[in-house]
Design goal:
Bound molecules: zinc ion
Helix content: 55-70%
Structural class: mainly alpha
Number of domains: 2
Shape: rod-shaped
Largest sheet: none
Length: about 120
């Protein structure tokens, strides 16, 4: 192929033109970060302690990225974030049910008392 910048004939596999040093844009490897820290996994993990739903969503995205882009990096954090987020969601759900059930019981009791008075 020919360099887009200087027009020199260069190797088809060349990522950078050996004559002018400009990136050829050819044969670029797929965007991967296999040696980088999966920051999103850590962010999701930390957030799962504060906001279950957002932490859960970010951890799920991070887990997908860990598998597709990061060569498994951050997978543990992402799974931990999902588990913590899910457990918290379950706890919040239970808490709401208990509150609602409690209010219903109080309401029933109040109604009964009103009748008795
Ligand atoms: Zn060139």
């Amino acid at each position: 192929m020919y360099c887009k910048s200087c027009g020199s004939q260069i190797d088809d596999q060349a990522v950078v033109c050996p004559y002018c040093g400009v990136a050829t844009g050819a044969n670029q490897p797929a965007q991967t970060h296999s040696n980088e820290t999966n920051t999103l996994a850590i962010v999701g993990f930390v957030l799962s302690f504060f906001t279950a739903l957002i932490g859960l969503i970010i951890s799920a995205i991070a887990l997908h990225k860990a598998k597709t882009e990061y060569n498994g990096n951050g997978k543990g954090f992402a799974i931990a974030g999902i588990v913590i987020g899910a457990v918290e969601m379950g706890a919040i759900f239970l808490y709401v049910i208990i509150i609602v059930a409690g209010l219903a019981a109080l309401g029933a009791a109040a109604t009964t008392n009103a009748f008795l008075l």
